[in-house]
Amino acid sequence: MVRDKSSDERYVYSQNILAREQQMDELTSKKQSIFQLLDNLDLENRRWVYRMQELTESEVSDVGVQRQMEEMRGKSDYISRLVVHDRDDLTHTFSRSVTELDETRLQLQRERNSLPWE
């Protein structure tokens, strides 16, 4: 019986390819989780400002209250901009990481496929 001399090497390549695919899946899952957290943060931020506006509507004539509300709105807007910026940064970082993993996976596939069948 003739044994395929490259089968062990092909198996190792296949395992490495599978590992890269699992890493890509994990990154995608983590990205979704982080984006959900950012969305929740932004939603809670907006709800908080809305609640504060409701509570202070009766105090509209009070200049101090108006100033505090403007300050809170400014902070809320800042948080919203941070969330957008973080989403953009994470999108870029995740995309770059997945691309690198995919390129490595494709290279491993090419190397595995180039092994001789003996």
Structure, explained:
The protein has 118 residues and is mainly α. It is built from two helices and no strands. It has helices at residues 7-56, 63-113. Helix 1 (7-56) packs antiparallel against helix 2 (63-113). The radius of gyration is 26 Å and the shape is rod-shaped.
Proportion in β-strands: under 5%
Query: What is the helix fraction of residues, given as a range?
Result: over 70%
Number of domains: 1
Instruction: Summarize model confidence as the mean pLDDT.
Output: 90
The DSSP helix count reads 2
General shape: rod-shaped
Distance between the ends = 12 Å
Order of helices and strands: HH
Please state the CA-atom Rg, rounded to the nearest Å.
26 Å
Structural class: mainly alpha
The main pleated sheet reads as: none
Q: Uncertain regions: pLDDT < 50 for 5+ in a row?
A: none
DSSP strand count: 0
Please tag this protein with its features.
86% helix, mainly alpha, single chain, 2 helices
What's the quick description here?
Helix content is 86%, strand content 0%.
What's the arrangement of secondary structure elements?
Elements: H1 7-56, H2 63-113
Helix pairs in contact: 1-2
